[in-house]
User: Fold this.
Amino acid sequence: MQHLFARFATKISEWAGKPVIFILALIAVVIWALLGPFFDYSETWQLVINTGTTIITFLMVFVLQNAQTRDTRAIQAKLNEIILTSHAENRFIGIENLDEDELKHLDRLVAKAAKGRGETEACRISEAANVVVPKKEVLRKRRASAKPAKQKQRPLEKN
Assistant:
């Protein structure tokens, strides 16, 4: 059932994002507005557009959220793979689980390091990320097993 909904959400998200769908929705609103004088701008006339848009919006929130969540997870997995197979700091894996204040603080530290504040600041960033990421032991083991072989190991491949 989950796989079916995921495919459905992906297709609806792709479909809803097309310009032709926007144009159709715009045409529907224009037709509704043009019908206003024929229905004397009655409450029923207003209720039609309010009910229709509310139902569509309500359902689309769940569909789009599902698609966005899956896309975000896929992007995060790809970024983690890039980090694991590069010279980047493995300690940054999992920082998406930090709260908003910790992410803002980490963002400021990374920005300072990027401006050439020195290696000391970058080390503090790594230490801060290591302290707050709950899966640090797993990451250390992964890093330790990947480094001696000097081989880029992919986490999704079987050895």
Notes: The radius of gyration is 25 Å.
